[in-house]
User: Fold NAD-dependent succinate-semialdehyde dehydrogenase from Phytohabitans flavus.
Amino acid sequence: MHARLLIDGEWVEADGGGRFDVCDPATGATVGSAAAGSEVDVRRAVDAAAAALPGWRATAAVDRSKILRRAAAVVRERAEQIAATMTAEQGKPLAESRGEVEYAASFFDWFAGEAERAYGQVVPAMNAANRVLVLPQPVGVAAAITPWNFPAALVARKLAPAMAAGCTSIVKPAEATPLTAAALLAAVTDAGTPPGVANLVTLADPRPFSAAIFADQRVRKVSFTGSTEVGKHLIRMSADQVKRVSLELGGHAPYVVFADADLDQAVDGIMASKFRNAGQTCVCANRVYVQRPVYEQVLAMLATRTAALTVGRGTEPGVEIGPLIDAKAVEKVDAHVRDAVDKGARLLAGGTRLTDGAFAEGSFYAPTVLDGISPEMRIWTEETFGPVAGVTAFDSEEEAIRLANDSVYGLSAYFHTRDYARLLRVAEQLEYGVVGANTGIISAANVPFGGMKESGYGREGGSLGIDEYLEHKYVLVADVSQTRR
Assistant:
């Protein structure tokens, strides 16, 4: 598997001819390579996107919609190939990769419809001589910076609304997972997307990409998914040109289980949220709060379920937990666990690196449950990004809300209750952009996804997702014949 750059509809090598290796985190083996782009290549991609913008912007919405629907169809036709590529370079179980490919395709379907529904407005004027129009128009050239944990879905979640709005794009995938992005962009191109509308630049070092796009006034929009630290840096870079930025940053999701909850449903939700993609998601449960009357019961159920999870290479049948992305990720997870245990947490499952036999060359960590986490522990405030569930008890609804909101992050939160009055109260009081009530799965193409506080701003998906790529222009039309009377 070898990826090249996609610039102006052509697959080309990097300007300097360099390449970098892509490795399987389950084995450490090289599975392919990608073109090592440079700032020169980024500028070439911006040139292509800027040249393609007038034609794509003028393309009728219904025609943009047809291309997006074809893109969804081609992605689905190539689902096995894309999923296999994803598992090879990212490590997640093949079943999860297949699910992600379908999720990616759903964004092209959804925004095909949104392209046809990007309505303007006729606003009642202040006097009879005037007419007031509000016209939605594409922002312009957009840059998408995507992470490694969902290398197909998060490219689609940015590229599809940009295309629907009439914007052209330059996509920069994560250094660890360029091959999946290339496979997805190949599907989009083969669906009939005009040259220059969707460009791909892979780089071994992301810094030249940021330098080029933030210096170029033709790039009017940057969408980034990644760490809060990097997001803050991009905000500062955007200030010089007041460039439009949308950010989906770190999370530290609380998962609250009230005593009146359906406990089987609650534990199912925790497992689904916490251990999907080996806990390497921005929306996974990090702090599990369980009301005291059912605490021991939920803890025992969670520990039993966690200890039974099957860990291994994502290509192996029945595997539920794949490797972490690299050795550095394993170090962080282990540091969080050791810190918690040293400060009084009780280890109920896992808590060890997996290094023997088939695990010897990979980045594996045993799915872990910690009982009795507390505020002085790193896991209480830091995003672990691994298969570790920290659990503690609470007594009242007020305490649960206070604990859940006690974070600089505000991306996602979850809770379980059978009390529908409580359901509304808690949902309204949680300071998070995405809330799951009686469920641990919250992602879909037709909903607005994004965070509050230091988890970023802007929304991806849903009817609001296309607005991130549109300017709304107010036009006042005066009736000359009326004003002359």
Remarks:
- Residues 253-437 form a domain with the Aldehyde Dehydrogenase; Chain A, domain 2 fold (CATH 3.40.309.10).
